[in-house]
Amino acid sequence: MPPEDPTKDRTEKRDGEVIAMHPAESGMQVGRALLHALHNAGISVLYQDRQMKTVWARNMSAPWASETADGKDLLSPAQAERISAVKLKVIESGNADQLELSIPGSQGVRWFQLWIDADRSDAGEVLGIVTTMVETTEQKRREQTLKALLREVSHRSKNLLAIIQSIATQTGRYTETLGEFLARFRGRLQSLASSQDLVTSSNWRGAALQELVSGQVGRYSADLARSLRFAGDNPYLNPNAALHIGLAMHELAVNSVSYGALSQADGHVEVSARLEPESGSSPSLLLTWTEAVGDAPRNEKRFGSVALERVVPMSLNGSATLEIGKDRMEYRLTVPHGNFETD
Questions:
Q1: Exposed/middle/buried for 331, CB within 10 Å: 0-12, 13-18, 19+?
Q2: How many CA atoms lie within 13 A of 173 on its CB side?
Q3: How many CB atoms lie within 10 A of CB 143?
Q4: Distance between CA atoms of 126 and 304, rounded to whole angstroms?
Q5: Could you give the dihedral angle defined by the CA atoms of residues 83, 88, 89 and 95, in that order, rounded to the nearest 10 degrees?
Q6: CATH number of 194-341
Q7: Distances (CA, A) of 98 to 48, 208, 307
Q8: d(C-alpha 19, C-alpha 281), whole Å
Q9: Any idea what DSSP says for residue 40?
Q10: What pLDDT digit, counting tens, does each position of 28-79 carry?
Q11: What is the spatial distance between Cα 51 and Cα 127, in angstroms, rounded to a whole number?
Q12: Of 256, 240, 252, nearest in space to 315 by CA
């Protein structure tokens, strides 16, 4: 068999890894390349012998770099005992293991994932252990944020379903036919969906009052600038207030299209919002809807008036009045400060 050309590239396969070797390559070059890779990937590596004495450490970032390399000075007695037990188990069994550590700091808790592997000789004897560490603080924070958001979504979904159930019950109580029920219930669901879109787009903060009113009235008007005149303050409603005030605006708009100003070609409604000072407390919001009305049926109690006078104000811990005169209708809703922001 002819001797191997020492200048020729050769490929070795070691434990499933293919490594290209060339005489021009040096251990120093490989070492520098691996250090760059560790730094770029944010990975720290620690080697300890069977007595768990630190032999070398690479790319140890804060807080590990400022203390002993194995981190014992950083850990609580319980954590130090836990990590020592895992390392001893790996040394004795030769089987890899992993664990998660949390370290309190001046800027909050930092999290680290540790992988502990046995370093074996060619004969299979465990010579020491290799500990690989990666900080997972940001990942942990994202997980915690996601869990909090999911809990909030679950909570708000239950609230929304409760509102829908109430609307369905009350709509059924004040309608006589299935067709009438479906038409009215569909309109109220669309109103909730419109308000919910505003709440969702604000990352669940809520909705600005003027945008909410415009969205509800705009569903029944081809020319919003003509049909709606909004004046006064524009507070930011919290999600619950946005849904219920949106429902009130929907009922008023539907009534106006059927019997009031919006049933006329040149009709319009006026909505004013004013922050009312309260003695010794934060101001409340006085929301007023005014319009000219025609011959509307006033002798029959319907869900619209029940929602305006009872459901909406009770949901906001506020109060409301609905006055229908011969040719004018006025709805006044007082909303306590806890339902909105003014900044």
A1: buried
A2: 13
A3: 12
A4: 79
A5: 100
A6: 3.30.565.10
A7: 16, 50, 58
A8: 74
A9: H
A10: 677 677 777 777 777 888 899 999 898 988 888 766 655 455 555 667 788 8
A11: 10
A12: 240
For 26-132, which CATH class?
alpha beta
Q: Which helix (DSSP H) or strand (DSSP E) does residue 232 occupy?
A: strand 228-232
Domain residue ranges in the chain: 26-132, 194-341
Please tell me the distance from the alpha carbon of residue 55 to that of residue 328, in angstroms, as a whole number: 89
The predicted-structure confidence for 284-333, as pLDDT tens digits, reads as follows 999 999 998 866 555 445 657 888 999 899 999 999 999 988 888 999 99
Tell me if 281 sits within 8 A of 229, measured CB to CB.
no
The tokens for 194 are: 């419109």
Residue 289 sits at the vertex; the CA angle it makes with 217 and 329, to the nearest 5 degrees, is 110
R_g of the chain, CA atoms, integer Å: 35
d(CA 322, CA 218): 22
Tokens of 143: 């997980």
Question: How does strand 54-58 pair with strand 43-49?
Answer: antiparallel
Q: What is the DSSP string of 111-136?
A: EEEEEEEEEE-TTS-EEEEEEEEEE-
Q: Three-state SS across the chain?
A: CCCCCCCCCEEEEECCEEEEECCCCCHHHHHHHHHHHHHHHCEEEEEEECCCCEEEEECCCCCHHHCCCCCCCCCCHHHHHHHHHHHHHHHHHCCCEEEEEEECCCCCCEEEEEEEEEEECCCCCEEEEEEEEEECHHHHHHHHHHHHHHHHHHHHHHHHHHHHHHHHHHHHHCCCCHHHHHHHHHHHHHHHHHHHHHHHHCCCCCEEHHHHHHHHHHCCCCCHHHHEEEEECCCEECHHHHHHHHHHHHHHHHHHHHHEHHHCCCCCEEEEEEEEEECCEEEEEEEEEEEEECCCCCCCCCHHHHHHHHHHHHHCCCEEEEEECCCEEEEEEEECHHHEECC
Overall residue count recorded for the chain in this entry? 343
Residues of the chain with pLDDT under 70: 1-28, 31, 62-74, 280, 294-303, 343
